Amino acid sequence: MEPFLDIHYQSVNKYGEELCGDQVQVATTPNSSIFIVSDGLGSGVKASILATLTAEILRTMLRQGAQLRDVIDTVIRTLPVDRERRIAYATFTVLTVQNDTLDFEVINFDNPPPIFLRKGKVEPLPMKTEKILGKKITTSHGRLDLGDFIGLMSDGIHYAGLGMSTKFGWGWDNIGAHLEVIFSRPVYSVHSVVNNVVTTARRLYDWMPGDDATFLGVYVRPRNDLMVLTGPPLDNGFDYLYVNRILDFPGRKVICGGTTANIVADFLQTKVETVMDSMTETVPAYGKLHGIDLVTEGILTLAAAMDLLNESEGDLQKLTPAHNGAYFLVREFFLADKISFLVGQSINPFYQNPLLPKNISIRRHLIESLADILMRFHKTVEIEYC
Fold first, then answer.
1. Which of 214, 234, 305, 385 is geometrically suited to a Cys-Cys bond with 329, CB 3.0 to 4.6 A?
2. Could you give the 3-state DSSP secondary structure of residue 331?
3. Which helix (H) or strand (E) holds 167?
4. Rounded to whole angstroms, what are the CA distances from 268 to 247, 253, 263, 352?
5. Is 169 helix (H, G, I), strand (E, B) or coil?
6. Nearest CA to 230 among 368, 106, 125, 337?
7. pTM
């Protein structure tokens, strides 16, 4: 089972500030992925500049393979000095994960320690401390496995509710216990974990954060693959090839299009069961077919799904759950990491725009537009025409 690094982060501004004093950078090299959380001194514009500058230096130098001492030296010498406090720095945490082995390294400077969970339970990372140019840096090494989680945070999460709902802030131990509760139930996406942590921190602040707060989660889980078969192929003599493709696909399977679904049903010597109570004014009813996870109508449902994706802005929780094919299709997209579209090019004249050339179908245009949106949401998308 191929492991997949599921990553999500979220920041909230200090109450009354337009800019966030925390910054997150995610970078990749041919061999590794790099995650950086930087917290600028104070809040507002100055903090944002300090955090952004620090994160950019770290990202650029680490991608180029620079040594840790050289990176820290550059950060310290580059940051401007705050005239009032006579200090100028931004705290930071860097997590590097090797793509092939999932070996990881954590570098932490004055941020709260990362939280590591294995099999849903907190395991403190063995941290080694050293001084570089008079600054105390802690590092840790390990190897990730399926089900492991690492959370990086700024002190706005760690001290959430300080002097308000909590005497000393939320605290590392309590955050860890909170994460254990989350992971006591099945977790399908790190997105929900991060949102839960940040929402809880905001609640502890009574919805008026006393500091910028950032939480970044990295969760190792099996990769979720999705295949979407839509439209009959140009040559109906090859129908069976594409039916076999989707039936043999190891991930989740979706069919968009009544004609396409009937081709698969005929192959299976069965019929599509229509769920009539799922029909709305704009979205036709979806169906059920043995061996297929979702069956929807084609063009209208794809168009409605595209509208929902745009409305979501990359967050499924921004959508109101609905019992219809478009919402279920969008949910499949969000749960998938890699989406393979198998697009038949046989044109249904009912949907064909007479102003378009005959070789350009509405379906093809919709799929390409959907692919653009999904890639903006960091999905891997492949399109194959048949």
1. 305
2. helix
3. none
4. 10, 15, 9, 29
5. coil
6. 368
7. 0.79
